[in-house]
User: What shape does this take?
Amino acid sequence: MPGIDRRLIQNFEWPVFVLGLAVSLVGIVNLISASPERSAANLIPETAWRQVVWMGLGLALLLATLLLDYRTLERIAFPFYGAVVTLLVAVLFVGRIVNGSQRWIDLGPMNLQPSELAKLALIVLFARILARRSATAPVGLLDLAIPAGLVAIPAALVVKQPDLGTALVLCVVSVSFLAVTRVRLSSILLIGTAGIAAVTIAWFFFLHDYQKERVFTFLNPERDPLGAAYHSIQAQIAVGAGGLFGKGFLHGSQSQLDFLPEEQTDFVFSVLGEEWGFVGTAFVLLLYLGILIRGLQIAHSSKDLFGAYLSVGIAALFFWEGAINVGMVIGLLPVVGVPLPMLSYGGSALLTDMIALGLLMNVSMRRYIF
Amino acid sequence: MNRLTASGSPSDATVEKRLTAVAVLVVAVWMILLTRLFYLQVVQGDVYRISAERNSVRTQRVDAPRGVITDRNGEVLVGSRPSFDVMVVPHETEDVPTTLSRIAGLTGRDLETMSASYGDPRGRARFQPQRVAHDLDRDALARVEARLWALGGVLTQVTPVRGYRYGDSAAHLLGWLGEIGADQLGRKEFAAYRRGDIVGVGGIEKLLDTDLRGRPGGRNLLVDAHGRELQLLSSVDPEPGRNVVLTIDHRLQEAAELALEKDHRSGAVVALDPRSGEILALVSHPAFDPNEFAIGIDPERWRELTGDPFRPLMNRALQGQYPPGSTYKVVTAIAGLEEKLVGVQSVVTCGGWFKLGRRTYRCWRPGGHGVVDLHTAIVQSCDVFFYKLGVELGVDRLAYYARQLGLGSRTGIDLSGEMTGLVPTEEWKVHRDHTPWVEGDTVSLSIGQGMNLWTPLQLASAYAAIVNGGTRYRPHVLKRIEEPDGRVVRSVEPEVLGELAVSPQTLATVREGLVGVVQEPHGTGSVMKGLPGGVLAGGKTGTAQVVGMPAGSRPDMETVEHEDRDHAWFVTYVPADNPRLVVSVLVEHGGHGGSAAAPIAREVVTRFLEGEADLYAGN
Assistant: This one.
């Protein structure tokens, strides 16, 4: 095959691979504990098994990603984006509704969540746009208008589902690209103003009452101790009760007695905190940090700008999802539905994470090949 | 690679500088997260550990009282009544099987059922009371309470349950309650509902569920590891559901039900106000008792209800479709008058039979009615007159006028599950049977036999339009919805669906005939004569054939097997000059309309007139 040559294998990107694999394995072990249907007869519950299958599939995709030169993505950035937007429109009409949100397209044995793919599509798209423009002149306002529109379309579609958390991730990841772009000061000020305006408009026209309620509750937890704050309080009790070494695997009373909300998905980190303590949470956070720093290094040593921006985007994705989710669980941020990469239960999210890791490795492994 | 040189090297100065800054930022954020985790887990760890050991906060849901349903006079039809339940807290009960068998002994309840409802509580459920016996009578409750001291972990509790004050009265209309289905939970309109919620399953309970249910509240309790409540942290009061006022008059409803139940017959009664479409009574018999559902119906009883050949769950008033029999003759009469094929003067000689081609069609009266005009034909329900007229009109013109009266389509009543009935046309028959329409079909059709199908509601609604001067109203059972404090949220006004494109003279001629049916000698509806207060009624009988009997050999219905007997119809209205009430009655396999259905209609009308008299006497 043309994609694999000896140098590619010699340059295999071990750090990202090992760190990513480690987080995923921690995720599986943690899910076993976070599954309420677990019993003596059913030691490894169905949710955990399904996640194992997803992980297998994800690893296969990750390795498959390596075969393909990431520069191919630069050529298909726009079609990819178009396809994802089409899927996002489709999901509003034919999507399956779970807990009041319409996010999934039913594909028989599995459900596809197009909003997860949208994260990748936007990263690839912006990497391409940035790589193709001259880096000498700073970016003006006009240069930002089109990218802003390109984020707004999928983000608005995702808000409609409604899935505020994913829309938020799409926006912050896109804005993160500005961190590695030279922007005029006047533009920054204008963007700030526009951002405030956008938030105001979203508040009055797009946000559902329950979503507003969460923001209020974060600002004032006493407001609704039965509703949104309940999640936050229970999650903090669980994490705090873990202490330094944790209560041990399967021994978290908060998790096992079903006090925790969404303990397999958005609040999965609290199960980890209760059962493995500060040692466990710090370990996992350091694994993430390793991926982030390594990601930035890969961006730095990339042989082309597209690879560099692609790596920055992927690092930004993991950074924001990790920080927002953990921040929410430990009471630093309001309750927003953002999954923790490779730890939260969810097939589409795990596949997206694995493909993202694969792309990161891809950029790293091709840094010397011309 | 040209692009690369054009856009500068990958380690472009900006990107390189920025990447270092970004890395510093990432590390800083991670330090914040780690610091917070250190604070929560190591510094405050013991505080949270105690909190978790005390099992912290338990959230208890407090259900909202469901709205009350009353009739038009404020009579409560559906409210709530207290149910005395026995609960067992798994965590506090040492020997559950023994405890359960002692409760079974005290209450006389079946131990197996009790174990089943106790289930196999795990996790958090072990700290919460599990219901083992529901709705105890006072004696059983007293026996349990007297021995509570010896039964650790057992407690009694009063919970409100839905109470249908009059048992099976208006059961189809009111509906019943059940646990929300898994398929419903996935749908958008049920987004606010949760697993285990009780929802309306049929009738008004289902239709107005979102109004009736209110909003549940909750209590946050601090409980210890043994499930003991230490402290009430906070609570949110439930918002009670809205109250619903129906257009139903319970007195009429009851009168109709009693009359229909008398001989254990199946059938339906619809009573409505022709001036507004308000339904005063809507009866379907046999019925069921919604109270059985309110405390959770037992599967065997459910199978019994669904498997019953008399189909008690079906609302015959709007779902039962029957050939209209002679009540159809008004359609033929209106069509004939409007198409100028018959005048008030035209006469036909009825010799007891009508010949078409080689077939002979009999009049119901052997020997015939002699010379009849339209009026006499309606009064005495002469078949031959209408055979002849029907054939001249043809099926499609009959269908045109039937549809005008709202037949063959839903009346639009504010209840779900209504059937359309059937008004056949030439095209319809070709489409269905692939055989052309023949004139013989029209002969049967013009006296209401054959392929026509009406629901009792459609019959009442069509006659309402004839007797009120030609206005079709949407029939409705909902009068208004009120907040618990009495503020009216929604009030249903009469809705005009359309005006009949029929001349007033035509309607007047038909009405004269309908009054003649009741008042004149030889009229088929003489049962309605002599009403209280000398009120005059109009009406029409109908007898719908269930099986085609050989022409001219209609046997005496008393000698025929029950399921082959004719359906009996009667539709009536009072007072004749300015109608305020239309009643339609269907008795399945009742035989003759005049003898089986009309007496039931008379009971309803009498009750209505007495009620009005009470009202005036009260003033």
